[in-house]
Amino acid sequence: MPIFFKQNILELRLRKTLFFFVGLMVFLIGYSSTAQSYSKFVNTEIGTEGSGLGCGFNFVGAAYPFGMIQFTPSFFSPQKGFVINQLSGAGCPHMGNFPVLPISGELLESPQNMEGFNKYKSVNKSHAGFVSLEMTDKTMAKLTVSKRAGIANFAFDKSSDKGTILIGSGVSSTNITNAMVKITSDKTCEGFAEGGDFCGSETNYRIYFVAEFDRSSRNTGTWIKDKILKNADLAFGPDSGAYFTFDSDNDVNYRVAVSYVSVENAKENLRSSSLEGGFFAYKENAEKAWDSSLSKISIATSNKDRRTQFYTHLYHSLIHPNIVSDENGEYMGADFKVHKSKNSEQYSSYSVWDTYRTQAQLLAMLYPDKSNDMMQSLVNFAEQSGGFGRWILANIETGIMHGDPTPTLIANSYVFGATNFDLKKAYQFMKSGATIPYSYSQNREIRPYLKQYMNKGFTKASMMLEYTSSDFAIGQFALNALGNKKDAEYFINRSQNWKNIYNSKNMWLNSKDANGNWKDLTKDWNEATHKNYFWMVPHNLKGLIDTIGGSKMAVKRLDKLFERLDAKYDEDWFAAGNEPDFQVPWIYNWTDAPYKTSEVVHRILNEMYTDKATGLPGNEDLGTMGAWYVFASIGLYPMIPGVAGFSISSPQFDEVSIDFPSGKFIITGGSSERPYIKSLKLNGEKIKTPWIDWKEIKNGGSLNFITSKKINESWGVNTLSPSYQKLKTIAN
Predict the structure, then answer these.
(1) What pLDDT sits at residue 5?
(2) 517 to each of 244, 319, 458, 501, how far by Cα in Å?
(3) Omega prior to 651 cis, within 30 of 0
(4) Chain-centre distance of CA 105, in angstroms?
């Protein structure tokens, strides 16, 4: 064979080899990129549909991790367009300010309160940081966000030569008391709105906005109630707004930013959010932010639906609390004065009665720096308002729910890694709220009936159980954060007051009247029954179980509760979507049947959650349910107030990799098909207890499960999970 033929053949082979490796590298890079696109794993439609208390109340639109803007069709008034603030999973109307709505053609009559339009036709695509929607008039809308701004792209139906964009300055999902909009050019406007309520509680906050389009409009105007004011540049009051009419031949890009301080601050927030590259540059930036946040936990599973659910629930855990301070650090305080944060950001949207049970621990474990700022924000709020609130919206303590949950949230955050905030002031407000009757946060009493609770050792049943749990958390914080053993002993001993409402005749926790007489067993249980709230003694489960005769009686009572998983709040079975029930599956770990914890947890995950729009069994509640799902699916649940540790169940996934700030922690051996724990190793050593301390894993390590489809009644038996003991404290 001629030499040149040999050379050509050799070259051809080399080229083929080279092309193969290049192709392989391109494939691998592409696969790697896809594998790391955590934002794309999220389906924001999960939890957006349902009825009553069985609905997630989630929004479908775009959010930024803990960002200022939630740019979305309002859950409560989607026909009004796309709002810039919407709580994730709160089950009653709220906020929904400055809705923007693109419509085909010109504006022919006043929109008034914007109730007369159709809801969007369909969601074309949604994931973390992005949503694309089609309107009923064929207008297309794409929404994304930055840290402090919302960005939209509108494409009008070309069958009309014009399209109009409405901005409802005096429109929201609740009542507006005052509003103003000023058109400042043919492509900009600004203004404010004031008013609002939340679950029947007045939340009279003021919020400012600025908005701009990327091209000039053909004409502008405003409206007030039933009147269109063509070419006018001002409008005031409720049911008012501005409109801009454009040629429909090109897309229109829209940006909006807000501030709770001033229009000027809103302008600075908008300027600081500016990116080169148009809408898709903002979209890419939001996706990268979510990729970074969601990548803290990596799961290995062949089940795409499970993967979607997991990352959607993790995503929901990372929307609130959200930033309310401006780019320059200014924010509106609880005293209605302007304050400036130093080297931190101010947060709001605290559904504390919900989030102290799950989300606080998750955020402290994974994002301690942000959790530090969140805790300091609560301390700042207390300084400005007089004490800790229960449910904070904007700069308002709404007073929603009961108990005294903020001390527990702070104590939980502290022991799981958020330690860099004003600990002394935090404790000062914990103690004052728990010991000084008639203490107030703004105009809301912190602990109603505190005087009776302190003098007689009891008050209304579910409220009291929340108080005793909070007392235990305060005691743990006093000990662990400040080394104050005297106060720790006082509060931890007081946390045993739950015993004062145990009725030995009916063997249930039972409310009393002010004179100490037993009430009807069904009285004074808030959003749950006596059979659900009975287990609300997470700090002394052994003591609780002993009061009813021990493990066999507890297992019998738990088994009865779990006959159903879908109960309503007033029904005597387990309610998968109701916070007082969240901890209950893990209580089997304090009995002689710990295998039932994993059994029940897997039932809940498999039966009560899906990847559909109706896939949540209850209100998301600002990250509470999302965090519950994350913990339940990885097999670690934080049970005890102010105590850094986890009650164990078998995980759902083959492998879970968690990037803690101090090291990587790997969990292996899980399966949605094998719920029972056969054996378990922690950092290579066999363990038989269904409890793990945070200190054993926070620097990294491994947790290796061997799981089975067959019940294993022996693992975890005869080991005592932590509870209140004679030592009075559970030191961490």
Answers:
(1) 34
(2) 67, 45, 11, 10
(3) no
(4) 39
